[in-house]
Every structure is written in structure tokens, then in C-alpha cells.
């Protein structure tokens, strides 16, 4: 697999499998959005806290999440039919990358996201929102600026490489994500940063949040959104394992967060207040 220059090599061994899809633009129940688009099944960013890992159930892969990738090679053709079909044209907001990262390293080679964005720019029907952990999105800045309305959200959980390298082994390093966010913002694209999920004892500490907010504000990013950890059973299982192996000192913080969600919510709110977030 070709990997972009800045991606880490945690999942470089994953061989993409080419598949066909029946639908590219699907309705979604995600609040604030009408449609979602996912040109790939699976995600080689392999984040250990990934909520999309339930997608394993809908594939015939036996590999764990992050270790397989299906490439929907006919995605742009199917999308073109859906946008230009004779039935009612879609309208509203589409979110690209709800159960995959549309700019994971394979996109450098397959360009399914780029081709889909070209179509969205041609038809001018939908507001486009992209959520990514990759700096590859910079490649498509010219297309993004031709869309009727476009926002790019970069998920950045921490600036601490010792945490990010373990939890997001295949994603672009956080400092490169930040640089990409700043570059897109400077070129006229709307950019926001998603600090999510907060990881107890690792990325939710006052020091970690203060460092992240400092970096974000230093690059001119003002639209910062934040979300706490949703304790889906599979995610909790993976996190408990990685905390035990790599971050044993923070394990008690994870347990405390899982035990009493309301007091955790208050603690985080206090910390955010103290750093002026
Ligand atoms: S980038 Fe997103 S979809 Fe991909 S593994 Fe990480 S959290 Fe999951």
C-alpha cells in the first residue's frame, strides 16, 4: 500500500482489497447531517478508541479493526448516478468519513474521495463536511474551495506523541494534522478541530488540554469542539487492555470515568473552565 509521507507505519502491512458498492450516498441519523459517505470499509489509522470498529460485523474479514481495508472502487460511478439520477436530487449536508477515514493512506493511491468531491463540486447540491485524522486532505484544497459550502474537521486528541503513537498508530502525527488544519484555514477553507474522545488520565488532564488549546489557538483555529468517551463495550475492552500495557498509571482514571460519568463530566468542565476553553 502506498502511504503518504507523514503517516506512521503501524498498519503499513495491510493490503487493500478491491470491492464494489451498491450505494455511495446514504442517509444518516447523525444529528445535523442528512447523508454520509464512506469510500472505504475499514480504517488503517487503527485508533484503539475507534467507535466504528462495530463495522467488523458487516464484513467477512476475520482480522481485527485497523488490520483490513476494503476499497470501493466503483464509489465515484455510483455517486454520480445518485447525484444525477432522475429521482429527487439529494439536498442538505453530507458528512464524509463516519465509519472510516476518507483520507487514510490508501486514498493517496485510489483517489476515491477526490473523485467524489469533484462530483459534489460539479453538482453543487450538498454542503460537504469532512472529518479526518490525515494531512492528505491538503491535496484536495482546490476542490474543497469549489464546493458550495465545505467544512473540514480534524480530530486531534492530544499533541503528546507518546500517547498518540500508541492510540492512533496509523494516523498522521498530531503536529502534521495541526499544520494541515492551519494551511487549509489559511487557504480559505472552513476548519474546525474535534478533541474526541477525551481519554481519562491521558488526554483529559489540565496540562494536556492546555497544551492542545495553546497549539490550536497559536495556529488561528477558533472552532474547537470536544467530546467525552462513549463507553461502548468493545472500545472499553480495547482501552482497558492498552492502558494496562502502556499507561498503567492512568488506569485508575479510566475506571473512575467509567464508574461515575456525571462526576467525570463535572471534573472535565472544571478543567476546561480553568484553562479558559
Ligand atoms: S481515523 Fe476514525 S475511523 Fe479511522 S480508526 Fe481512527 S477513529 Fe476509527
Concise description?
The chain has 277 residues and is an alpha/beta fold.
Task: Tell me what you see in this structure.
The protein has a domain at 17-198: pyruvate-formate lyase- activating enzyme (Alpha-Beta Horseshoe). Helices cover 36% and strands 14% of the residues. It has ten helices and ten strands. The protein has helices at 75-84, 106-110, 112-123, 141-144, 161-167, 174-186, 206-218, 233-246, 251-259, 261-274, and strands spanning 17-19, 26-27, 35-37, 40-41, 70-72, 92-96, 126-132, 150-155, 190-195, 224-226. A seven-stranded mixed β-sheet has the order 2-3-6-7-8-9-10, with helices on one face. It has a three-stranded mixed β-sheet with strand order 1-5-4, with no helix packed on it. Residues 1-6 have low confidence and may be disordered. The structure holds iron/sulfur cluster. The site of iron/sulfur cluster has 10 residues, from loops.
Amino acid at each position: 500500500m502506498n502511504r503518504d509521507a507523514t503517516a506512521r507505519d503501524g498498519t503499513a502491512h495491510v493490503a487493500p482489497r478491491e470491492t464494489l458498492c451498491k450505494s455511495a450516498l446514504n442517509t444518516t441519523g447523525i444529528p445535523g447531517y442528512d447523508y454520509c459517505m464512506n469510500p472505504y470499509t475499514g480504517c488503517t489509522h487503527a485508533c484503539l478508541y475507534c467507535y466504528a470498529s462495530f463495522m467488523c460485523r458487516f464484513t467477512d474479514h476475520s482480522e481485527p479493526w485497523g488490520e483490513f481495508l476494503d476499497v470501493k472502487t466503483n464509489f465515484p460511478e455510483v455517486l454520480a448516478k445518485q447525484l444525477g439520477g432522475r429521482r429527487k436530487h439529494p439536498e442538505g449536508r453530507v458528512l464524509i468519513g463516519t465509519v472510516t477515514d476518507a483520507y487514510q493512506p490508501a486514498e493517496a493511491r485510489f483517489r476515491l474521495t477526490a473523485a467524489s468531491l469533484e462530483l459534489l463540486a460539479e453538482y453543487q447540491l450538498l454542503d460537504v463536511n469532512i472529518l479526518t485524522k490525515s494531512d492528505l486532505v491538503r491535496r484536495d484544497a482546490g476542490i474543497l474551495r469549489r464546493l458550495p459550502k465545505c467544512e473540514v474537521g480534524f480530530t486531534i486528541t492530544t499533541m503528546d506523541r507518546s500517547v498518540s503513537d500508541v492510540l492512533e498508530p496509523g494516523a498522521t502525527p498530531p503536529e502534521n494534522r495541526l499544520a494541515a488544519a492551519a494551511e487549509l484555514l489559511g487557504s480559505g477553507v472552513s476548519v474546525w478541530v474535534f478533541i474526541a474522545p477525551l481519554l481519562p488520565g491521558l488526554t483529559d488532564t489540565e496540562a494536556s488540554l492546555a497544551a492542545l488549546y495553546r497549539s490550536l489557538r497559536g495556529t488561528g483555529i477558533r472552532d474547537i469542539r470536544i467530546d467525552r468517551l462513549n463507553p461502548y463495550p468493545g472500545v472499553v475492552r480495547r482501552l482497558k487492555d492498552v492502558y494496562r500495557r502502556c499507561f498503567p498509571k492512568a488506569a485508575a482514571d479510566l475506571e473512575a470515568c467509567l464508574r461515575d460519568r456525571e462526576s467525570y463530566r463535572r471534573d472535565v468542565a472544571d478543567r476546561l473552565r480553568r484553562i479558559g476553553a
